[in-house]
Amino acid sequence: MKRILIVKMTSLGDVIQTLPVVTDIRRAFPGVEVDWAVDESCADVVRMSPGVSRVLSAPLRRFKKTRSLADLKAILALAAALRRYRYDAVLDLHGVYKSAIVSFVARARRRFGYRDPDLGERGAMFAYNRRFGPRPACNAWHGMRISAGEALGYMPQGFADYGIVTGRGGERAQPGHAVGAPYALFFHATSKDDKKWPPGHWAALAREMLAGGLRVLLPWHATAELREALRIAALAPGAAVMPRMSLAELTHKIEGAAAVVGVDTGLVHMAHAMKKPTVMIFLATSRDHCGIAAPRSLSIGEQGWVPGVDDVLSGLARVFPEFGPSKSSIAA
Predict the structure, then answer these.
(1) Coiled-coil annotation: which residues (predicted)?
(2) Does residue 160 sit within a domain?
């Protein structure tokens, strides 16, 4: 086994949760070259893995909106890069049209994809001459490790190893705090309304964490997310709305965080991958299928159940025992 191509294009959380497959492959086949095809929007995450030899990216998601000539040229360059080497195997761990096309363009003896019932888009089946086995009874993330191992002839061992390597970014002092004072990151924002935890809950949690001696930082990306962050900060004096940051900058902030709390969104998966004390809140998706679980991270909530502030504080006590929130009653 000399060269493998992983195809996982989006989204951020899914790409992060695919990183352990790289570690598994390189353990099973020392010296193997692992390339990865990914959408440009998620490429920086893949570049954090030293186990990936080549990151092959193009703005496929953006091209659907812009139809620009520059983006088209980048996509054609991706196609050329996919043809540069012959792969022993292509693993399409995405299972939709765009990933199938990428898999089909690559020069490979074997192109693995999911069985028809497991595909995200049934039409993707045209690209494969091999299929992964039936999905095992486990969460989606471990299922990818199992599928890749079955295809290539090894069994994944141990806990997921994301292999992320990055440098920590510096920070400026905040009023009333010295540089380096411990902080918690609240990833409150998500593109889907049914995944959102109520602002009043975030504010109550922030007040408890501030009382326990932690700064509370509120990231945002879109304008609507900024409004929500400002609303939470108004209800929790002392919580700080961060400036808008890039993915790399937010990754550095996660690396320096004492704890991370957030809804089911990509950067909370990043915190879990970086072994930070992490609580992920589920409201509309299945924590059994998409959740996180490790000695320093856990998932709470479920479809149809909105966890309360006390539930999150209890979760934090499990993954971050160093934190001692106040014992006062929590305001609604």
Answers:
(1) none
(2) no
